[in-house]
Amino acid sequence: MRKLMNHSRQFGTFIAGGLLCAVVDIGVMQLLLRAGAHFTGATTAGFLAGLLVNYAFHSRVTFEAGASASSFARYLCVVGLNYLLTMGCVSLAVALAGMPLAGKIVSLPLVAVSGYLLSKFWIFRKAHHEH
Fold first, then answer.
1. How far apart are CA 119 and CA 75, in angstroms?
2. Of 23, 26, 37, 105, which sits with the fewest C-beta atoms within 10 Å of its C-beta?
3. pLDDT (tens digit, 9 = 90+) per residue, 52-104?
4. Dist CA 61 CA 13 (whole Å)
């Protein structure tokens, strides 16, 4: 029961950190779009700002692993995958409805699920096994 509570708390912390990162990500994207940036540049800048906050938060708070070169390298692989997923959703939303924000919003839960699973079982796997 205690293990289940720890996993639930960890997932809740992951989601809270993800929401913080989403605010940073979408905020930067929207500011740049309003300033006249192309949707690909604005989406990329938002994604990069969010990823820096995300790694720092999850390495220190969610998984209590601290930063390391190997976990950051694994994290960047996952970021690359999630970036492609995000850009695909945003590009599709632009093509279908001219709405980059709609694509961004659709991508967020997909990125959250893949990010949590890959973080727990691959990026921060040593920290996971120690608990």
1. 8
2. 23
3. 898 989 999 999 888 888 998 999 999 899 889 999 999 999 999 999 999 99
4. 8
Task: Report the alpha-carbon distance of residue 60 to residue 108 in Å, rounded.
Answer: 22
Within 10 angstroms of residue 64's Cβ, the number of other Cβ atoms is: 15
* Assessment of whether the complete model's pTM goes beyond 0.85: no
Which amino acid appears at position 62 of this protein?
A: T
Tell whether the torsion through CA atoms of 121, 124, 130 and 131 is positive or negative: negative
**Do the Cβ atoms of 39 and 117 come closer than 8 Å?**
no
DSSP string, 49-61: HHHHHHHHHIIII
Rounded distance between C-alpha atoms, residue 95 and residue 6, angstroms:
42
Q: Where are the beta strands (DSSP E) in the chain?
A: none
**Joined tokens for residue 115:** 């990010």
Question: Rg of the chain over CA atoms, in angstroms?
Answer: 15
Residues in the chain: 131
Cβ neighbours for 56, distance < 8 A, ≥ 6 positions apart: 67
